[in-house]
């Protein structure tokens, strides 16, 4: 693996994504992603830009110019773990729930990552587990216990 290949492989694994998922996002084949990761081929600059957006890292970090440092989770977010909250979503978000809305009540925060949170909530008599990117969230409000 080349340094670039190692970096995109590591980022893909850290984000729990498959080569197929990345390939679909970039409109390339799964084999293309494999070739990039092994160093058999290199992406065009437009694909490098798209990769940096998917992984939310700079192009410098993606190509190994700057040492990547993992962001620490916010103390505020850590405090929400295993708590019930109302989640307020950005109306321009690309996230869609079966009924488009800007808030979800009674969400149980089950996992917190540096760029996302995993919540469980009830919707139309069903329990839903959903991953939300922090960029799509305007805020939280603690629920009364």
Descriptive account of the structure:
By secondary structure, this protein is an alpha+beta fold. 34% of the residues lie in helices and 26% in strands. It has six helices and five strands, in the order H-H-H-H-H-H-E-E-E-E-E. Helix 2 (19-26) crosses helix 3 (30-38). Residues 11-62 form the HTH cro/C1-type domain. InterPro entries: Cro/C1-type_HTH, Lambda_DNA-bd_dom_sf.
Series of secondary-structure elements, N-terminal to C-terminal: HHHHHHEEEEE
Q: Label the overall shape.
A: elongated
Fraction of residues in β-strands: 25-35%
| Annotation, overall tally of beta strands | 5
Spatial gap, N to C terminus: 51 Å
Number of helices: 6
The pLDDT mean sits at 83
Q: In order across it, which strands form the biggest sheet?
A: 4-3-2-1-5
Spans of at least 5 consecutive residues whose pLDDT stays below 50 are: none
Question: How helical, in percent, are the residues?
Answer: 25-40%
Largest sheet: 5 strands, antiparallel
């Amino acid at each position: 693996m080349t340094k670039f290949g190692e970096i995109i492989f590591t980022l893909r694994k850290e984000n729990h994504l498959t080569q197929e998922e990345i390939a679909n996002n970039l409109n390339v084949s799964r084999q293309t992603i494999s070739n990039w990761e092994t160093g058999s081929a290199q992406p065009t600059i437009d694909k490098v830009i798209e990769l940096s957006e998917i992984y939310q890292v700079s192009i410098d970090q993606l190509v190994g110019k700057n040492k990547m440092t993992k962001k620490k989770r916010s103390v505020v977010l850590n405090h929400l773990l295993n708590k019930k909250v109302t989640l307020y979503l950005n109306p321009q978000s690309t996230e869609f729930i079966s009924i488009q809305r800007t808030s979800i009540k009674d969400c149980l925060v089950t996992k917190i990552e540096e760029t996302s949170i995993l919540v469980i909530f009830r919707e139309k008599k069903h329990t839903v587990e959903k991953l939300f990117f922090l960029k799509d969230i305007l805020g939280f409000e603690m629920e009364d216990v």
